[in-house]
Design brief:
This protein has 557 residues and is mainly alpha-helical. It has helices spanning 45-50, 52-57, 66-70, 87-90, 99-119, 121-136, 159-168, 177-193, 201-210, 218-229, 237-268, 270-273, 281-291, 298-321, 324-336, 347-366, 375-397, 404-424, 433-439, 444-467, 474-482, 486-509, 516-527, 531-538, 544-552, and strands spanning 8-11, 18-21. It has a two-stranded antiparallel ribbon.
Length: 557
Amino acid sequence: MQSYYKFNHVQCAKTGIYRLRMPQPHHIPSIVNSKYPCSTPPYTARYLTHNKQSVSDTRPASCKTDDHYANIGRNSANYEPSVWGDFFATYAPPNLEPKERLEQMIKEQKEEVRDMLRSTTNAVELMNLVDTIQRLGIDVFYKFKDSNGSFDVKLCEDARGLLSLYNAGYLAFPEEAILDEAISFARCHLKSKANDLIPPLKKQVLRAFKTPLHRMLPRIEAMYHIQEYEEEETRNNKLLKLAKMDYNLVQRLHLEELKHLSLWYRELNLSENLRYARDRLVELFFWSLAGYFEPHYSRARIMYTKYGVVATVVDDTFDIYATYEECKLLNDAFQGWDEKAIDCLPMYLKNLYLAAINTVHGLGDELQPSEKYRIPYYIKETQILVEGYMQEIEWHAKRQAPTYDKRKIPAIDGNIGSVLLCPLLGMGEDVTEEALRWLSTFPDIVMAPMEICRYTDDAISYEREMNAGQGPTTIVCYMMEHNLTKNEAAAKFESLADESWKKLNRACLRPTNVPKEVLNRFVNMARVCTPEYLFGLSHGSTIKELIGMLFLKPFSI
């Protein structure tokens, strides 16, 4: 079993409550001291309730009491409760094939598939051709044009060829007009044929219209493709069986991780004590799965989800609940990264601050000795994240409308730590200190997915953030600067996101010392920044069906 299951249970002498103890790294300032004898990570409000008097007694005289904060009017975003609750903490899949037996079956099936590929020259040639087309990029598309420079009308007769052309067009670099033409040409003719197509090709075309293959999450595409491949008359049953078994085995691992995270989240107890915030553990795990779906990145998924849970609550605290004074206190606490900073925080922020710092410390414990140098990156990026939130609060408090560029930069910088850097730190040997230093210079491979996420999220969260009384969002700043309507600005942001995708495509193929496996994470994280998935973080019910399909529906073999 993976090391993240190995925790020690300790009992608090005062309360009798058992908690999970994670030893603090010796070179990180410990947040736990004699003032909080039972505050083993995660720090929960149950202990604060038992010891409320002792906590308030330690406040400096200059700090305000909790009574001061009790009657303050608060905003609310009215987030819906989690649609999953504690479900995955106790869920056990029915009628499972023993894991060892399934692994052996996969091993045997792989050998059969290898033998098949060795003996089928055409299959090998086909795979080589696909690989060559991906590497050739722009040049290959001239082969689809006629003598007049237009796309050959003969292509219109082949729906599968049109679909391939359409999907390939989204591999474009900046200023590659020929690929934009390819997309328009293929889409136009596929639309005219859509009603006459039969499954599974019709399903594939309609899905590509919504999300092109290059921008599709690999795990979701695999799920759909297995379903559709089974409908193909020319399917290879050996390949189909192998794909199903492999999918089911990986799904089982993901369920084990969800159970572990659900138990950790229950102990953290943030959703009970900070009810104004989004309760989105399962949705955040889905996001981690989007970027790091491969089995060997289990640790990265666990670490990303834990960090994401805390970052989401901190975000909601700044955005909708805390007063300006409380935001300043919380930001100062994070910038100091010191246990003494809790003394002046109101009770609910004590709980949040300690949970956040203990979670970051706990993530450090997941790292191997040779990886401990990564811990300061967690701390620094957390501070950058919170500082970005505070900047937005300052603008709102001063009734300032910053320029679009000024508003965009902290929004993007703040996302770097929580969306990209955190899971990278859990990847393993692929991520070197040299790679982290290079990535921290914000090359296109880093900036492009952040821009994609920013443009897309702003376009869909405009109404929610304005209704919650937040300051001017990025899209509002853009509307004011360019005298545009909301719809015009949203269309422009969609266009800007497409341009950022082209920058990302180019960055992935630029020579670099950073391993391809690391670069692929940035592409995957861009893929999850769609309106559907971003909206699902605030409204979990919108992606409930998709999550249920991913985790609760294994394929029959």
